[in-house]
Predict the structure.
Amino acid sequence: MFWPDKGDIASEIPTKDELIGMLQEAGVDYRVRRVPKGVLFGWGEEPHKSAHFVVEGMVEIYKLERDGRKKTLYFCKKGDFFGFQILGDSCVPIATASACADSELIAIPKESFFKALHTCPDFADMVVKYLYNLISVLTNESVQSAFYATAQRVPMLLLSLGRDEQGSHDAAADADADDGTPMPIIVKYNNSDLANILGISRNSVTSSISRLQEQGIVAKRRNSIEILDMDRLEKVTLLESSE
């Protein structure tokens, strides 16, 4: 599992039109898909034939144990790729992917993906940077798990998710409210989602969220969390990380 924060490489992620331009330059096949919420992209341990780029929506990547337990590994949002198992000989993933919101995706078959890597330098450069970013965030998550307590990791994750949400807004969404106060940031994850991402109990997340709510930093919604003050959330994160 890893943090959703894409960091500095987020600016390198292409738009839909830019990616399609690269694929057309390479002369390869691709397909734009509109996928309803709940649709599976194949099960873990079942070979997949395409990688996918998320244009809009959200895809959950998770692992199912034999006893039925589900472990969320991460969420793919706008600008994310998933399905890199096609780079291996077997094309067999270790996890299952499912649309957790109505989504628009670009599906790139394995043969097309490799041809684009070999014939379009911009595509190859983008993929290398994206994979490097995945390694970076995986390493970051390992560090967070090793050095920070559960109570610290919840606000740290919220800050990361909030920054990610900020970065995905267009100019209209980023505009301040009429009275000059910043618009609140909506993190579209519930307590169970956060617990799955961090690998901790739901009760631990609920306790931490309640503490932030009492301080007026966040507000709990039914299936999301509203960050009311990013600056104070960052200060809380820094304070708790230094304890």
